[in-house]
Specification:
abc type-2 transporter like fold, 5 strands, single chain, about 375 residues, alpha/beta, elongated, 5-stranded mixed beta sheet
Length: about 375
C-alpha cells in the first residue's frame, strides 16, 4: 500500500513538473497577495490635494492655511481666485478638498469673535472624504485652541472664551458618505473586466483543448473574423450586466446617475477593448483553461487592489502608485465614478479617456498579432 501511495505521489509531482508555467504561477500568486494586501490595504490617506480660496489675505488667514499644510493630511496645490475654479478642480479630480476663507476672518479673530471658514470635500470617495472631514475639523479645533492660548498668555488672564475658529464642512456629491455610492460604480468596472477577460480567454482556449479550433481554421473564416465572432457575445453580455448593476444600484442602493447614460456605455465600450485584449492575450499564451485562468488572475489581482476599487490610491506607497499607472481599470473607475456621481462630461475625464484608449489599442494590437501567429 505504501509503495502504491509513494508511486502515485511521485507521479503527481512529475505531472506538476511537466507544466512549469502553471507551477510558477501557483508559487507567485501567494507572494503577490501578501505584498498587495500588506501595502495596498490601507485607508490611512495623507497629502490630500487641497485648493485654497483666501478672500481675507491677512496674517490670520495665512496662519490657518499654514496649519492645514503642515498637518500631513493636506497638501496645498492650488491658490484660487474664484469659487468656479474650485468647482472645476474638484469635478476634474485635481483637488479633493477646498478651504474657503471669507473676508473679515482676521478682523473677527482680532476682536474676539469666532472666525468662520468653509471646507468643501469631494465625497465621491468616502474613505478619503471621511479622513478629510475628521482632519479638517481636528486641525481647525487645534488651531483655534492655539489662538486661545496665545490670547490668554498675552492678557495674563484665565477663563473660557469663544472658540476662535469654526470650520463649516460641506461634502459634495455624497453628503452622507454612503459607501454604496463608491462601490456600485466600481462593481461596473469589475463586471466588465472579469466577464470579458476571463470568459474570452477560456472560450478560445476551450476550442484549442477540444481540438475544434483546427476544424474552424480549415474553414474560410479569417483569424480576425474568428476573434470578433468569439468576442461579440461576451461584449453584449457585459453591457447587459452593466445595465443590471446600474439599475439595481440606482433603485435599491439609491446611487445617483447624474451623468449621461449614453456616455457611460460609450466609455464602457472603450474599456472593453482593454479587457478583451487581456483575455485574447492570455488565450494566445495558455495551452489549457487552467493556465488561461491563472494568467488572467495574475492581472486581475493587482487590478483589484491597485486600481482604487477597494483602497484609495493616495494611501498607497509611492511604488504601488507608480505601478497603478499601468492598470487600465484605474482609469475606468475614475471615469465611471465621475460620470455617475458628479455628472461631468468628457472634458473632466479627458486624461483618463486618453489613457484608456492607448491601453485598449495597444493590448488589442499585441493580442491580435500573437493570436494570429499562433493560428498560423
Amino acid at each position: 500500500m505504501r509503495q502504491r501511495l509513494r508511486s502515485l505521489i511521485r507521479k503527481e509531482f512529475i505531472q506538476i513538473g511537466r507544466d512549469p508555467r502553471t507551477l510558477a504561477l501557483i508559487i507567485i500568486i501567494p507572494v503577490m497577495q501578501v505584498f498587495l494586501l500588506g501595502y495596498a490595504a490601507t485607508n490611512d490617506v495623507r497629502n490630500v490635494p487641497m485648493a485654497v480660496y483666501d478672500l481675507d489675505k491677512t496674517t490670520e488667514s495665512r496662519e490657518l492655511i499654514e496649519a492645514y499644510s503642515t498637518a500631513d493630511y493636506f497638501r496645498v496645490d492650488y491658490s484660487l481666485s474664484s469659487e468656479e475654479e474650485l468647482t472645476t478642480l474638484i469635478e476634474f479630480g485635481d483637488a479633493r478638498v477646498g478651504l474657503l476663507i471669507p473676508p473679515g476672518y482676521g478682523e473677527k479673530l482680532q476682536t474676539g469673535q469666532t472666525g468662520e471658514v468653509g471646507f468643501v470635500i469631494d465625497g465621491s470617495d468616502p474613505s478619503v472624504a471621511k479622513t478629510a472631514l475628521s482632519a479638517a475639523q481636528l486641525i481647525g479645533q487645534a488651531h483655534g485652541a492655539s489662538i486661545q492660548q496665545q490670547k490668554l498668555a498675552r492678557s495674563g488672564m484665565g477663563g473660557v472664551t469663544l472658540q476662535p475658529v469654526e470650520v463649516r464642512t460641506q461634502v459634495w456629491y455624497n453628503p452622507n458618505l454612503e459607501d454604496a455610492y463608491f462601490m456600485v460604480p466600481g462593481i461596473v468596472g469589475m463586471v466588465l473586466f472579469t466577464l470579458t477577460s476571463m470568459v474570452t480567454a477560456n472560450a478560445i482556449v476551450r476550442e484549442r483543448e477540444r481540438g475544434t479550433i483546427e476544424q474552424i481554421i480549415v474553414t474560410p473564416i479569417r483569424p480576425w473574423e474568428l476573434v470578433i465572432g468569439k468576442m461579440i457575445p461576451y461584449v453584449l453580455l457585459a453591457f447587459i450586466n452593466t445595465a443590471e448593476v446600474l439599475l439595481i444600484g440606482s433603485l435599491w442602493f439609491k446611487v445617483p446617475i447624474r451623468g449621461s447614460l449614453t456616455l457611460v456605455f460609450a466609455l464602457s465600450g472603450l474599456f472593453l477593448l482593454t479587457s478583451l485584449g487581456i483575455g485574447l492575450l492570455a488565450s494566445s499564451i495558455a495551452n489549457t483553461q487552467q493556465e488561461a485562468m491563472l494568467i488572467v488572475y495574475m492581472i486581475f489581482l493587482p487590478s483589484v487592489f491597485l486600481s482604487g476599487f477597494f483602497f484609495p490610491i493616495a494611501a498607497m506607497p509611492k511604488v504601488l502608485q507608480w505601478i497603478s499607472a499601468v492598470i487600465p481599470l484605474r482609469y475606468y473607475l475614475n471615469i465611471i465614478r465621475a460620470l455617475l456621481l458628479k455628472g461631468v462630461g468628457v472634458a473632466a475625464v479627458q486624461s483618463d479617456v486618453i489613457a484608456l484608449a492607448i491601453f485598449g489599442v495597444a493590448l488589442m494590437t499585441v493580442a491580435s498579432v500573437r493570436f494570429r501567429k499562433r493560428l498560423d
